[in-house]
Amino acid sequence: MSPVLQAPESGHYTSMSLGGCAPADPVSDPPRWKKILYKRQPFPDNYVDKSFLEELRKNIYVRRYSYWAVVFESAMVIQQLCSVCSFSVVWWYMDQDLLSPQKLCGVGLAITLLGYLLFDAVDKGSGRKECGRTRWDDLKSSLVFIAFTYGFSPVLKTLTESISTDTIYAMSVLMLIGHLVFFDYGANAAVVSSTMSINMAIFASVCLASRLPRSLHAFTMVTFAIQIFALWPSLQRKLRAYTPGIYICVTFVFALFSVAGLLSISGVGALLFSILLISVAFLCPYCLIRLQLFKDNIHGPWDEAVIKEDLSRFYD
Amino acid sequence: MVHSRREGSGTCSHRNSVRTPETAHAPLRTHSICMVSDFFYPNMGGVESHIYQLSQCLIERGHKVIIVTHAYRDRKGIRYLTNGLKVYYLPLQVMYNQSTATTLLHSLPLLRYIFVRERVSVVHSHSSFSAMAHDALFHAKTLGLHTVFTDHSLFGFADVSSVLTNKLLTVSLCDTNHIICVSYTSKENTVLRAALDPQIVSVIPNAVDPTDFTPDLQKEKTNKITIVVVSRLVYRKGVDLLGGIIHELCQKYPELHFLIGGEGPKRIILEEVRERYQLHDRVRLLGALEHHQVRDVLVEGEIFLNTSLTEAFCMAIVEAASCGLQVVTTRVGGIPEVLPDNFIILCEPSVRSLCTGLEKAIHQLRAGTLPNPETIHNTVKTFYTWRNVAERTERVYDRVSKETVLPMNERLERLVNHCGGVTGLIFALFVIISFLFLVFLRWTTPDYLIDVAVDASGPNAAWPQHNCRKKPRKKLTMKK
């Protein structure tokens, strides 16, 4: 009979002769357990060595955040919220015929030109040299865009006539929220998609533009949407990278203007919006840092390995 | 049975394995074991062959073993495999990846019927990916049977899906009598995932059949060097790395060839690399391999490459080493535990590190400093044998059968205390419902009305003796 099976203690395995392993020398030190499977060791199968879970690592990828750095990062979200807010305010003014399209067009053009100059001035033309785009290219694409939008604005005007206004509003709200969700705030996440984000914003602007009184209004609205949702964020990014101080000031001024604009329409709205902005800017970073304390992330040799190299050079 | 064993015509599929004094003795008491898993033949894989080989060796040791799995297309009902291994293919709906759907209740009538008619004493479930395995554990506990669970895979903690799966595993294992893992790393992983007491987790490695994986002694010596890869071509097996390695090394060594067996969604990557660098004559993609073809593919090469990103045990490298190949592999999961350092070159999971490892192997091969394939085979075949696995598993059964199954009130208490307030309560509710369902079933069909099945294996086996001499391997290849 196997000595194992006759062993009186039933709780633990007491086998000393698993398979062909040589019995340990009684004189020398007791055998050390090794984390190997190919050699039969004089330990029971459910033996728990003191090195058990030795390789367990906790929270190795935790980042230490500093409060003001997170606040700085939140400026990007603030900017985007303000963009959506200003866009809506401008649309409301246009809808009420309080703002003439000519005026908006003029101001928009002036600010865009200023931004265009700034865009090159901020990095002293190094970005332009890198991507190799000439001014002629820029002019061409903007002309093409303006011509097409202008040409199609009567179509835009009548495009959604058969759809109820409520549906249009609901759709625009949904699309603008989608724009905020999918926008590339610099996070490396699966939901981030700048194409999707910009498309949703343009869709919302087309929807809203179609409810404006005349086709010139529609044209101005779509152009303004491009300026605020496509051109403005790229300038922002440059400002952020090269002149962070100015970037914060610009964000602050922009936020003030948006709240003021909203205040001229609805006091409650402005109050709620400013609460939102303040909580995003100051409360959320605080929560993020506080919640880091509760992080309990375990890593060990069982983790699936991550390929760190860039393998794309082999495949494309 | 005893007679045939003593003669050495082993019924386990490896006939020439090393005999230990214990294997010649019949165990003190025999168990009636029911193996449950969604994964069994005709499906192919590590879990499937583990269940089959383990069952065969347990039958050889005098236990009664039955297997319960779900129906595979026209393979349904009861089938008998070699040595009276009875397999129930149950008509349950397959949901995803050969795993059945689970409601925790619907399979109770069927499983209860089987457990009663086969007079099962231990329910042994396999693989945490199998819903049926968890269902069976759940019902077995309701029926008051002893439960054992074998975990074959590793799982992370980082994403939502693993958080949910780990929670379910916690629920499933909190009142299971004993858990078996295939490597120490896998044990650590399971203990953490299911919040278990490490004392109730045993480590029993997988095994390979060394008679199936022998080196080719008639092989001619040529200048050509072949690197063999046999794995499913999926992301987790590191096929992306493989593409990079092929490109790097084929540029450097003109006499180098790659032989790749296996199929999967990432095959396209390898085809792309082959196309792009014009390597059609040097990189051969063989597609899916049958189990019996693997050896013939392995012996065509000199170096075996494994690029897995996660692996609990990795049978493939043991099989390759058993065929006498030099193994180059990533250092992930339980792999460093599997083979001693002189048979294995461990690398980091990156193209550069793996290339360095492969170059080292190539230089050794050219210099002739690699160990002789036969020496490797003779050493490796002593490492892992199914008889040893069966013997150690039997010890788990012995231990488990002396333990008490938690009564209803303690089980509910354990669930609520161990699995967290919300989950624990939800599953406690399920336990109560399944208990009431069982009471109802016992009322409609009392246990004494269920026919007791004729045993095909075990001490009262009605199976004729001469069938024991058939080789199980033949049976398996026939089925595919």
Secondary structure layout plus pairing:
The complex is a heterodimer of chains A (about 325) and B (about 475).
Chain A: H1 3-6, E1 57-58, H2 67-95, H3 101-122, H4 126-131, H5 135-159, H6 165-182, H7 194-209, H8 215-242, H9 244-265, H10 267-291, E2 298-299, H11 312-315
Antiparallel strand pairs in A: 1-2
Helix pairs in contact in A: 2-8, 2-9, 2-10, 3-8, 5-8, 6-7, 7-8, 8-9, 9-10
Chain B: H1 2-7, E1 32-36, H2 46-60, E2 64-70, E3 77-81, E4 85-90, E5 94-96, E6 99-100, H3 108-117, E7 122-126, H4 131-143, E8 146-151, H5 160-173, E9 178-181, H6 184-194, E10 201-203, E11 225-230, H7 239-252, E12 256-261, H8 267-276, E13 283-287, H9 294-298, E14 303-306, H10 315-322, E15 326-330, H11 335-338, E16 344-347, H12 351-367, H13 373-380, H14 386-402, H15 408-418, H16 421-444, H17 472-479
Parallel strand pairs in B: 1-2, 1-7, 2-4, 7-8, 8-9, 9-10, 11-12, 11-14, 12-13, 14-15, 15-16
Antiparallel strand pairs in B: 3-4, 5-6
Helix pairs in contact in B: 2-14, 3-4, 4-16, 7-8, 7-12, 15-16
Main location (chain A): membrane
Membrane topology (chain A): Multi-pass membrane protein
Keywords (chain A): GPI-anchor biosynthesis, Membrane, Transmembrane, Transmembrane helix
Question: What attributes characterize this protein structure?
Answer:
heterodimer, A: 316 residues, mainly alpha, two-stranded antiparallel ribbon, B: 480 residues, alpha/beta, Rossmann fold, 6-stranded parallel β-sheet, 41% helix, disordered N terminus, disordered C terminus, transmembrane (chain B)
Short description:
The complex is a heterodimer of chains A (316) and B (480). Chain A is mainly alpha-helical and 316 residues long.
What would CATH call the class of the largest domain in chain B? Answer: Alpha Beta
Question: How many β-strand stretches of chain A?
Answer: 2
Q: Structural class from helices and strands of chain A?
A: mainly alpha
Roughly how much helix do the residues of chain A carry, as a percent range? 55-70%
Mean pLDDT across residues of chain B: 87
Q: So what's the overall shape of chain B?
A: elongated
> Portion of residues in helices of chain B?
40-55%
Provide a count of the helices of chain A: 11
Q: What is the strand arrangement across the widest sheet of chain A?
A: 1-2
Stretches of chain B where pLDDT falls below 50 for ≥5 residues? Answer: 1-11, 13-24, 465-480
Most extensive chain interface and residues per partner? A-B, 43 and 65 residues
Structural domain tally of chain A: 2
* Distance between the amino and carboxyl termini of chain B: 29 Å
Number of helices of chain B: 17
Counting DSSP E segments of at least 2 residues, the number of strands of chain B comes to: 16
